[in-house]
Amino acid sequence: MSRTRTVALPKDLYQRAFVDSFKKLDPRVMMKNPVMFVVEVGFVITLLLTFFPHLFGGASDPFYNGVVSLILFVTILFANFAEALAEGRGKAQAESLKKTKQDTKARRLQKDGTIQMISSTELRKGDIVIVETGELIPSDGEIIEGVASVDESAITGESAPVIKESGGDFSSVTGGTRVVSDRIRIRVTTDPGESFLDRMISLVEGAKRQKTPNEIALNTLLVSLTLIFLIVCTTLLPIATYVNAAIPIATLIALLVCLIPTTIGGLLSAIGIAGMDRVTQFNVIAMSGKAVEASGDINTIILDKTGTITHGNRMAAEFVTVGKTKQEDLNRAAAQSSVYDETPEGRSVIELAKKQGLASSELELPHSEGVEFRAETRMSGTNFANGVQIRKGAVDAIKKHVSEQGGKIPSDLEEKANRIATAGGTPLAVAEGNSILGLIYLKDTVKPGMRERFEELRRMGIRTVMCTGDNPLTAATIAREAGVDDFVAEAKPEDKIALIRKEQAAGKLVAMTGDGTNDAPALAQADVGLAMNSGTVAAKEAANMVDLDSDPTKIIEVVAIGKQLLMTHGALTTFSIANDVAKYFAIIPAMFMLAIPQMGALNIMSLATPQSAILSALIFNAIIIPILIPLAMKGVKYTPMSATKLLSRNLVIYGLGGILVPFVGIKLIDLVLVALNLV
Amino acid sequence: MDFLQISLVLVVLLILAIPMGRYLALAFSLTTTRLDRVFGGVENVIYKISGIRVADMTWKQYAAGVLMSNIAMVAIAYLLLRLQGFLPGNPNNIGAMEPLLSFNTAVSFLTNTNLQHYSGESGLSYLSQMMVIIFLMFTTPATGIAVAMAFMRGLTGQRSIGNFYVDLIRSHTRVLIPLAMIVTLLLVSQGVPQTMEPTATATTISGTEQQIARGPVASLVSIKHLGTNGGGFFGVNSSHPFENPTPLSNVIEILSMFLIPASLPFVFGFMAKSRKQGWVIFGAMGMMFLAFLITAYTAEVNGNPALERAGLSQLMGSMEGKEVRFGIAQSALFTAVTTAATTGTVNNMHDTLTPLGGLVPLGEMMLNSVFGGDGVGTVNILMYAILAVFLAGLMVGRTPEFLGRKIEGREMKLIAIAILVHPLIILAPTAIALATEMGTAGISNPGFHGISQVLYEFTSSAANNGSGFEGLGDNTPFWNISTGLVMLFGRYVSIIAMLAVAGSLIAKTPVPETLGTLRTDNSVFLMILIATVVIVGALTFLPVLALGPIAEWLTIR
């Protein structure tokens, strides 16, 4: 798990949400949410009836109308508050980002070679700027000259600076980050207002939030339910009048509001915003809600071996002696050969030797000198003051090196080296003088916990495929160790696209991570492409999500967040619709009890009076919204398990619970109303 | 004894429905089957004569086929009714049917409703009986079966949704005509008349002369039930001893109206290559049916408390309006079946059912998916299944999918239209009827029962059932126009919307099933499906039911 960008919910956030929930009462804003708009219309009508009880003919109780009106008003406020609160969190994040986006000065390199100081907002795509130590990078771009360490904490929250250099996969820089050392020349890659930071701000702000596909489908369902109940309630008036069971308008509106799915209608956008926000808090920027939702549907995840599944650097796992060499001799020589080797490989050799009991004193080598690895020799080592040379390197290279000095090749060397290669490792031979002592078994190690993660994914019905440039043998070993479902060895970038296309043709949704420019086409092809922030601009543009921490394993969490978003929608919709059962039993008898006293038989909750029954149902309908706000914001708890189990669990909680909870809630509210002598 | 009777009928139904499902799947297969050798010859001749091109259709072509053919049918039916006075086959010299009643009658039979606002014997010439009534009694269930086949093909991702004209012809040649022949013979064996002889004149014991109507009754009664039509040869429908003489004929009629609706879920199972899937759909419908049946039976067997207080023995149950030869069990079963399958034939008078007994036919027609009419009932329950998949599917954290096809915004919009129309065309006209003089004038029993009468008339029209609560003076311009429109909307809106759903689903790339996929072939989904139908379909009508049958029940308790 990586660190998350936590935004606490300070007091002023609540205050602002409170104020916003009043602002959102504007009918033009409310129209966007048809369910709550109906409630608002109901509020206006009952409000009018409070002051003009005879508005629609017949007498009505102004006090009762007023109470209904008040509850409706509070219901709308609660729903608005939920949305405002969710938006507020995004806004708070956006503001902290906006602070980064100050108007910086940029030094633009003119065509004639002179430097012109301009405002960063005047920079256009293709301009070349120079940035020096301590300065802010004025815009997104690519380093065309120089190396620099850059502090990207403004965006990633990571305080340690990262090295950026021209050429290769680490050449992209983001506007708003600070150069902490050296001087670089950057080609600007975005126009003002389109930079990564700009997009990020507008995304977290939720200003241009587009509804996700499932949200649209769900909204359709909610609107049609609302229309159905609108039909039910409006037609009920003439039908009831026919049998002289007059229904007060306020009661009819109360029935309507209780039946339409206000709970989910009020929380729907908050769930969506909060879902996006959870992704952001996780330091992943999703370019659209659609991408987050799609990640819940993923069937296959394609992961790079190096850096994602394994640490990416080979580590010494074992020292294998050859001939009649003693184990201690090999251990010592191997360690001594690596004293000057600063690569992770070299350090791992020393670590392993020490772990196997090598005294630290053996590694104090006065007057010796290190021999660096060179592509021609393919070996490195240490030259002692006494002329002894210790080398470690590729088996062929060492064999050649020893033969040149007249040494013999141990007969079991070849066989043991092959065994290591077959097992997926890399053998390094160690030679002291002209004799070969043995082999270092270098192994690419699987990151801890990966096996469990893949197991989890399997339980969610997701298949993992590992992509690696390694030979099939090595790939198979790592695949087995990590527990992935499948692997592609000797993979070229185009193989990845082919794999994605093949999976997609079978109807599967594919997620992948990548950082290099050659990953860009595959990232674009995948349904969910997660690019590393450290990666190239091309990769980031092709992807629909960017991980600011550049941790490729995060794709797994993103899938969980996507699922959670969908589940929260489903669970609260089910809860909301299931609530109707109890509300019917509260309101229907209450509505008709005056005209048809026998209706009392249906009052199974034995609510005190018709008015208390209707008000209790209405109050329950209102307060369930704030009660569920935390759930809407946090999302329904998600533990990886099969769909069947998940469904049974959620059905019991939200389906059965949705039927039972309001019975208890309405009864309790009724008892309180009676106890307070309000009815 | 009652229990044995009822369960025996249901067991026989199940035994017949499973092989029937297999037969239907084969009969409507898009690939060549051995049935083609039997029926192909005749069918090819029909295709050639009528110029039908046997090619796969898009959903739009299919829907256009449904509409065009149905418009042609209704136009012919209307003209025949208007012109019957000038046409041959009219020995009794029956004059033209008046325009609004003709409209209502033509629409009623076109939509498989068979709501009869006319009086059979005096209103129709023999030609009209044959060319309008019996003709439509074959073509409308055939249309329904065709649409169901197209819809199921779309859901299960067959090669295409098929060809409407081929499905229409096959429904006749392979299903309805052969079955109608068998059932006709069975009914004749029970004493149902099948004759072209004129009305018989008998001398009664008291010496007076009595005219006994007869005719080709058995053939009409057989397709009346097989096609879930419901329009009777005689005014009193299947309570008449010539339409339904014995308890055995009663059973034959029950089985024949339930046979096709009950076998279609199994067809779905075959198409989806998952028998369990078929069983889940059948199970959901079956469980709802049992609940309704038990309610009806219990209500009727316990008699009418109001009559009991008046000193009338209710030991035999509420026998008012029922035939002694059927008793409570066979009457309750018939009532539950005829409104479940939206046939609309009756063997007892629904107006005299006890309030809760009367709630059962109302409820079944409101759900319109407890087996339902030929084809359309299956389409409706599958629509609810898609809705259930949408709700439950989200709860497992994936875009909902049914049989590997994603349920997205477009499908939800189309389904929203269908679930919206049904309550709209029942409740809005009911409200208008009860609020206006032209509506209330026809009510014979004011009060709560009056609400039931009006509600029943529109529910029966919307569900294309056709049974009447009777007691409603319904041959007036208001009722003829309103129910005519309700029948049209009730049939075609959902047919077209669901064909569009089929067209949309068939175009989707199927998603492979994984552990993360919501299973729709187990008991959990069965419960979700029932809950969806009950909460979305039934609770909508609870307020109005509370004022009708429920209030009536509570006040006479």
Automatic annotation (TrEMBL), chain A:
Keywords, sorted A to Z: ATP-binding, Cell membrane, Hydrolase, Ion transport, Magnesium, Membrane, Metal-binding, Nucleotide-binding, Phosphoprotein, Potassium, Potassium transport, Translocase, Transmembrane, Transmembrane helix, Transport
Family: Belongs to the cation transport ATPase (P-type) (TC 3.A.3) family. Type IA subfamily.
Enzyme active site: 304
Span of domain P-type ATPase A: 102-205
Compartments, as annotated in UniProt: Cell membrane; Membrane
Record-listed Mg(2+) binding positions: 515, 519
Catalytic activity annotation: K(+)(out) + ATP + H2O = K(+)(in) + ADP + phosphate + H(+)
Domain of life: Bacteria
Topology versus the membrane: Multi-pass membrane protein
CDD domains attached to this UniProt entry: P-type_ATPase_K
Record's protein name: Potassium-transporting ATPase ATP-binding subunit
Coarse class of the protein's main subcellular location: membrane
Transmembrane portions of the chain: 35-56, 62-82, 216-239, 245-268, 584-607, 613-631, 651-676
Organism in which the protein naturally occurs: Brevibacillus invocatus
Enzyme's top EC category: translocase
Binding-site list for ATP: 341, 345, 373-380, 392
The protein's Enzyme Commission number: 7.2.2.6
UniProtKB/TrEMBL annotation, chain B:
One protein family per Pfam: KdpA
InterPro entries: KdpA
Sequence similarity: Belongs to the KdpA family.
Compartment(s): Cell membrane
TM region(s), chain numbering: 62-81, 130-152, 173-192, 251-272, 279-299, 375-394, 414-435, 478-503, 524-551
Name this protein carries in UniProt: Potassium-transporting ATPase potassium-binding subunit
Membrane topology: Multi-pass membrane protein
Domain of life assignment: Bacteria
Subunit structure: The system is composed of three essential subunits: KdpA, KdpB and KdpC.
PANTHER family: POTASSIUM-TRANSPORTING ATPASE A CHAIN, POTASSIUM-TRANSPORTING ATPASE POTASSIUM-BINDING SUBUNIT
Natural source organism: Brevibacillus invocatus
GO molecular function: hydrolase activity; P-type potassium transmembrane transporter activity; potassium ion binding
Keywords associated with the record: Cell membrane, Hydrolase, Ion transport, Membrane, Potassium, Potassium transport, Transmembrane, Transmembrane helix, Transport
Task performed by this protein: Part of the high-affinity ATP-driven potassium transport (or Kdp) system, which catalyzes the hydrolysis of ATP coupled with the electrogenic transport of potassium into the cytoplasm. This subunit binds the extracellular potassium ions and delivers the ions to the membrane domain of KdpB through an intramembrane tunnel.
